[in-house]
Design goal:
Length: 58
């Protein structure tokens, strides 16, 4: 199997983000290494877990 990768410039004109999930990562382009972590020191009953956090319109 032959596999050829050709990296070219990427140009992003405009991006509209409507909402962000409670755990999200947004990348444009290449990356070699991503390491994410989080720690909660809040009691579990005080957390509000939902799929999206709405952003204020501009």
């Amino acid at each position: 199997m032959n596999f050829t990768v050709v990296n070219r410039n990427i140009e992003t004109g405009s991006i509209k983000v409507v909402g962000v999930s409670s755990s999200s990562l947004f990348i444009i382009g290449d990356t070699d290494h991503v390491q994410l972590s989080s720690i909660f020191d809040t009691p579990p009953e005080s957390l509000i877990i939902g799929p999206f956090v709405p952003l204020a319109p501009r």
